[in-house]
């Protein structure tokens, strides 16, 4: 029997993913899994560009505002829950749609994540001491010694990546790279697509979206979330720029400018993520999706 098909629609913020996903889901009479890591939480409505009530009414969506931000959803746990939802959807539909700009969450569901050993407190302390004493060069030198294979491909300017790899090395006594590539095959096939408008158009849409968020009450939403501002999910673009403003460190105009600037930078990183994965094909509408399905 032919495998069921998960149509994956990725891309940067404000690229039109939501509209395309809804159109595709309507065409196939199926449901949508949201893989946007900031849209899971019901307390966040405006700054995370959640689909409107009108859009949500068109097609059944899963993982939109279905939990509290006090119960954060990791990529691994999302994959576990989403696999269960997909099993139910595929019982009555040959197709399902996955949409989002959080590349790690999409990958977790479609391919699984590598399983790493538990990192001990001792390993964390050891890496932190190294960072405090020798800085980034110390992390680089140690990872080069313990795991030259991973050192050759990692972003060496990203201390968090280096710290994580060294923690695993210390905790397990094995190279970090030895735990990579252990993903599990899925019982469905994936068609990887991306919305990818021209950069100038994308940036203009981002600025317009921020203006629309402000008109919809973004600042009031941020103020209501201020007691939780230290949560990782609120240390993200669209929210993190407001916390210094609320502390009086700069004015409102600066906060708005930073939201727009950082949203453009975030979109650029998303474009890079999806561009690096050669499985993704650029599409602009349902006709393009159908054409790609024929090639699958």
Descriptive report:
This is tRNA dimethylallyltransferase. One of its GO terms (molecular function) is tRNA dimethylallyltransferase activity. It catalyses: adenosine(37) in tRNA + dimethylallyl diphosphate = N(6)-dimethylallyladenosine(37) in tRNA + diphosphate. Helix 3 packs across helix 4, helix 5 crosses helix 7 and helix 8 packs across helix 11. The chain is α/β, with parallel strands linked by helices and 296 residues long. A 6-stranded parallel sheet has the order 3-2-4-1-5-6, sandwiched between helices. The chain has 2 domains: 218 residues, Rossmann fold, CATH 3.40.50; 59 residues, Histone, subunit A, CATH 1.10.20. The chain contains 12 helices and 6 strands. Helix 2 links the parallel strand 2 and strand 3.
Descriptive terms for the model:
alpha/beta; 12 helices; 52% helix; IPT
Residue share in helix: 40-55%
The rough form would be described as: globular
Look at the structure and give the CATH class of the largest domain.
Answer: Alpha Beta
The proportion of residues in beta strands is 5-15%
Q: What's the structural domain tally? A: 2
Question: How do the SSEs run, as a string of H and E?
Answer: EHEHEHEHHHHEHHHHEH
Structural class of the helix and strand makeup? alpha/beta
Query: Terminal Cα separation, in Å?
Result: 16 Å
Q: Which CATH architecture of the largest domain would you pick?
A: 3-Layer(aba) Sandwich
Strand order of the largest sheet: 3-2-4-1-5-6
Evaluate the radius of gyration: 21 Å
CATH-defined superfamily of the largest domain: P-loop containing nucleotide triphosphate hydrolases
What is the β-strand count?
Answer: 6
Largest sheet: 6 strands, parallel
User: What's the CATH topology name of the largest domain?
Assistant: Rossmann fold
